[in-house]
Amino acid sequence: MKIVIASDSFKGSCSTVEVATAIEKGIRRIKKDAEIVKIPVADGGEGTVDALVLGTGGKYETVEVIGPLGNKISASYGILEGNVAVIEMASASGLPLLKKDELDPLKSTTYGTGQMIKAAIDKGCKKIFIGIGGSATNDGGVGMAQALGVSFKDQDGKEIGFGGAELARLTDIDTTQLDPRIKETEIIVMSDVTNPLCGEKGASYIYGPQKGATPEIVKQLDANLKHYASVIEKKLGIDVLDVPGAGAAGGLGAGLVAFCNVELYPGVEKILEVTGIDRHLLDADLVITGEGRIDSQSIYGKVPVGVAKRAARHKVPVIAIVGSIGEGAAEVYAHGVTAVLDIIPKPMSLEEAMDNASSLIEQAAENVMRVLSIEKTVSRLDFLNRKELDIHENGSA
Fold first, then answer.
1. Are strands 2-5 and 35-38 parallel, antiparallel or unpaired?
2. Domain 2-39+276-390 belongs to what topology?
3. Nearest CA to 34 among 280, 285, 380, 343?
4. What DSSP character marks residue 120?
5. CB 3.0-4.6 Å disulfide test: which of 43, 197, 207, 354 passes with 246?
6. What would the pLDDT profile of 271-318 be if each residue is shown by its tens digit?
7. Does residue 384 carry a pLDDT above 70?
C-alpha cells in the first residue's frame, strides 16, 4: 500500500515536517510495511521555505535584515537546485516576530523582505519564489521597494518613513535607483488570498485587525493604500488597485506587482508543482493531508483542497486530518476531499490540544488505518459469504 502524506503545518504547534512524521508513526502502528512518501506542503505562508527546501533537498541561508519595527533580526531563506531562492516574507516582516502588544500596522515595514530579495539576488539567484502570508505590515510593500532602491518622497522631496501611516505623505515615486537586476530576475509570488488592495474586502479591512488595527486605524490604512495606488498609477502608469491578490500581506502584493514585475499565484499550487507531487500520485493508494482548522475558507487556496484537487486527477482518495472542524467544512467534499477527521478524542482546552498535537495527530492517523482495515475485513467477509452462498446454491465449490 502506497500512502502519500502532504499536510500543511498545524500553526502554533507542529511544522509540516512534524505533522508528516506523526502521521507516519500512526500509519506504521497498523501498516508496518506501507510505502510512505512525505511531501512537505504550505500555502505561501508559514512553512513555505521548509516545504520547498525539505521537499526538494535545498539548503538554508541566513541574512541580517530590518524587522517589522525597524530592529535588526536574522532571517532565513532557502536555495533550491538550480540556484533558485525561496523566501517567506513572514520571516522578515511577519506576525510571529512581534508580541501582541507590539503590533502596529501604522509603523511596521516590509523593508526586511526587500533585503531578503536583494540577498538572494546577491547569491546569483535568477528565480525567486516568495511566500507572502503572515505579514505584520500594511505598508503596500513600500519598505520592500525602498530596500531595493525605490524612493518615495513627500511634498518637500523628503523620503517618507516606515509604516502604513507614512503613505499619506506620499507625493512622488522615483524608480531610477531600483536595483537593475530585478528586471533580470523571475519573481513568483505565492499567496493563499485574492483580496484587492482596498475596500471592504481589501488588505486593511480584512487583515488589519489581526495586525493590531482598531476600526479607526483600519479606515486610515485603507485610505492611505488608496492614495498610494493613485500615486503609483499617476507616476508609473500601473493600476494596482483591483489586481486580485494586491491586498495580500498588507498590500505587499501590490508593491511587488508595481516594482518587481511579478506574477501572483496560488501558493499551494506552485509548491505542489515544484515538489513534484503528481509523480507520486500516479500509483498511490491513499493521500493523507491536513491543516490546523478546516472550514468554509479551506476551499480558497488552502493546502487540503489543493492536494485533493491534484489527487482527484489520479482518482486517489484523500483523508484530511485536522485540528478542528469549523462551519462550512463540508464544502471541501466537493473539491476532492473524501473524509475529514479531527484529532480531538475528548473535551480539552485549545492549549492542551496544541501542547499534545503531535501525539493526537499520530493517534488520528492510526484510527484512519484501523478504519481502512475494517473496510478490507468487511469486504473480505462479504466475498466469503457470497462464495459460500454460491456453493450452497450450486452444490459445488
1. parallel
2. Rossmann fold (3.40.50)
3. 285
4. H
5. 197
6. 898 888 999 999 999 999 999 999 988 887 789 999 999 999 999 999
7. no
